[in-house]
Amino acid sequence: MNLIKKPGFKHHWRGLGAWNYYFLIKFTLLWLGYLNFHALDNLVFAAYLLFPLASPRLHRWRNIIGLPIGFAVFYNDTWLPGIHSILSEGSQVTGFSALYLLELVNRFIDWQWVGAAFALLVAYLFISQWLRITVFTVAILIGLNLMHLTGPLIQLGPITSVAAGPADVPAPAGDGKAAGAASMSAPPNNQNLTAYLNDFYQRESQRATVFPQALPADAAPFSLLIIQICSLSWSDLEAIQMKNSPFWGTFDLMFDNFNSGTAYSGPAAIRLLRASCGQEKHKDLYSPANQQCYLFDNLAKLGFSTELMLDHSGNFDNFLQELREDGNMQAPLMSQAGIGHQLNSFNGEPVYEDLPLLDRWLAQQTRDGDARSATFFNLIPLHDGNRYVGAHSAADYSSRAGTLFSQLDSFFQQLEKSGRRVVVVVVPEHGAALVGDKMQMPGLRDIPSPSITHVPMGIKFIGIKAPHQQPSLRISAPSSYLALSELVSRLVDGKIFDAPQIDWATLTKDLPQTAAVSENDASTVINYQGKTFIRLDGGDWVPYPQ
User: What share of the chain is helix, strand, coil (3-state, %, to 5)?
Assistant: First the structure.
């Protein structure tokens, strides 16, 4: 009797086949620094694809099931927004205009990378005629896993030094020290970076600006105008060659190392309106804060009337509602009736002309006489996707920036001629991400990278008797909104306007410093020991790709 010997287990190994190309693309992107590669996840996925199956039908079904799994694993390896971020921010996409959505899709497709992927495919098909690519793929995957076990990018080790937390009594804001700086001595591993972040927030929770209980009898009234510009960072200014624009030279004080703390408009506005306390966690922005944290409330208690201006409706992403509920800005919105517009925003709504709005504000201030006032003005002409009326493509950013700077400069000259006493603060919400990096394409701000959150802040004194500070006094210490609040608290008596001379160095001495920590809903970026680290969705810390 002849017995037919069935093929053994080893005869059912089929190799990775076309999946080799999938892994080759990943290896290439990893080598170039474009992936947050999860070595173990990919090794497990390769094992799933390689496990020997006797049935050809099961093998085909495995490949079919592997398609969505492979997509999920690949997506997880990229720096693209996670599912948590998509669910929390995805509703905004429905508000985008069709033209803006089309522009985003076109921006996402990089035809040079498409061509490179095609060349890699041809190379793979050619070489696979003679070599078993699966052997090299598995060897690389095993090697990458061994590297993570024996030589990770971030050296693992115990925390050797963590600074003790502060006392429970709120610290004065003007201590001139960067919160968290004392805890930077430990090696940058996961445990120490998390400890540093927790220590930072603990220290920040103890800091607050101390405003005077009342103004002196000889206090001089003046107006405070805070202009918050959407989508403008030092990186953007450098990209359009306006970093050294004469516009910035008109300010008396320039903060060169100001951190906005976020890459989105709503959180940036809330942080500014809550400037009188230390930096909060992102999630805490949507819970009530201590009453002393609200900058405009502190000014209102001293007799300042509060005013609100927008050059847009404030409807997108419930921006105006967030100002009311989370920033406690209850002032009525200044009328936009009769103001024209040359730009339509990314969601199709008009972006009202800023100079006529500012002229209306000045006329209103003139009617009110010498009353004290504090105004918050949020404007969006530089936002990504804005279009000139009737145009089908996005307006040139450089042109819009030039127009905005020209309008603001013209308004400053009008203020000087009016004889009014005004402190003007120009502070952007965040950058426009004009350039992009290995983590995010241009225009994407899901991750608050330093190039997005490092923004210029300028302060200009109009109506002072003393000579202006020229050139501008540059403040290079790491700072954020608390420094602005502290400076405002030093100015509320208005005596600076009548002083024959101003000691600018004394005015800005010991302003509170704030370490560079930035958060969006699902991502955190910190500067530690001079290097930038990022954590996504509460995962591990990794160095920010350069």
Answer: 40, 15, 45
Task: Note the pLDDT tens digit of each residue in 139-178.
Answer: 999 999 988 776 544 333 333 333 333 333 344 555 555 5
How does residue 98 score in pLDDT terms, banded at 50, 70 and 90? Answer: low
Question: What residues contact 473, with CB distance under 8 A and at least 6 apart?
Answer: 252, 253, 254, 504, 505, 508
Phi, psi of 327 (to 5 degrees): -100, -5
Indicate the helix (H) or strand (E) that contains 140: helix 133-150
What are the residues facing 307 on neighbouring strands?
375
Residues 6+ apart with CB under 8 A from 443: 104, 107, 384, 385, 432, 433, 434, 436
User: First CA to last CA across the chain, in angstroms?
Assistant: 70
Among 480, 88, 538, 459, smallest CA distance to 261 is for: 480
Q: What phi-psi label fits residue 105: left (phi over 0), alpha (psi between -120 and 50 degrees) or beta?
A: alpha
Dist. CA 13–CA 393, nearest whole Å: 53
Amino acid, single-letter form, for residue 477: A
pLDDT at 441 over 90: no
CA distance 182 to 7: 67
Tokens matching residue 540: 């591990």
Pairing mode, if any, of strands 373-379 and 223-229?
parallel
Model confidence pLDDT, tens digit, residues 291-338: 999 999 999 999 999 999 999 999 998 999 999 999 999 999 999 999
